[in-house]
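Throughout our pipeline, every protein is held as a single compact record rather than as scattered files. Such a record has a labelled line for the sequence and another for the backbone structure tokens. This encoding replaces a full spatial description with a residue-level series of whole-number codes. For reference, a complete record is included directly beneath this paragraph.
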Amino acid sequence: MSAVGPVVLLAGGTGGAKLAAGLAGALGTTADAPDELVVVANTGDDVELYGAHVSPDPDLIAFHLAERIDARGWGLDGDTFHVMDGLRELGVEVWFNLGDRDLAYGIERARRLAAGDRLTDAIGDLARALRVPARVLPMSDEPVRSRVRAQGRAWEFQEFMIVGRGAGPVEGLEFRGVEDARPTPEVLDAIAAARAIVIGPSNPLLSIGPILALPGMREALRATAAPVVAVSPIVGGAVLKGPTAAFLEWAGQPVSAAGVTALYGDVLDGIVCDEPLDPPVGGSPDGSPEAAIPVHTADLLMSDGADRRRLAGETLAFAAVLAG
């Protein structure tokens, strides 16, 4: 693996955000020299409400990287919720709880988008203001919205997760607007120049699915000279958080590293997991073990900063081996 070019992480959700922080630590990036790590964040979860444009995944990633994540696992540490309290006093149904500073970021983002600015620039400026030691890029400047069918009805993603509690069985998933969206030039340039590309331990359908569904994204990943390595979100044969299992079941895949690998298909050069691929997953027509995708076995738990840096370091070392 060449030392030239950035490490690129495709990410969404808590697992992806934690690995982003681990990679920043392993690489030694700083807010003054962030270009060695580029995080491409899912924006299929974005939502417009309270007069704000809320980008949950890019913000979650930025807060983790800046070491500003609240103990709840979302939002900024020490944030207050006076606006939400005020809305409730007025009889507004507040189903999406947003901290005051978090809301301020979303309001400013909405203002800039209405003025014609790109989402890339609005998210990049927030990352710089928070002194994030990486470049955080939205997957696209065009709107893509994940929509789930479950419990006998269609849901916008955030409503499904919060009001519907992410409960299955899942009956359908679509990325509205994806046909008219494209990866940003910054995303494509980072992938082309990368020395390693990592797919984070995120929900492969909800968090990584919208990124890979962008026209041209899979082609860009297949064309890059960098090894593409996934980190499995399945830990000890189970999902630690979120509805990943329900979506894998809907997709006809087992809750295993093999199921995740099958969804990513031929963009992958290797996978980091804590279990063997059973059956082996490969690109040959007969699925022969000789063609099976390379596996690095690791402890996937990221309980603290040391765990995150360890997993990130192992992932980068595995990518270096694959690069030959």
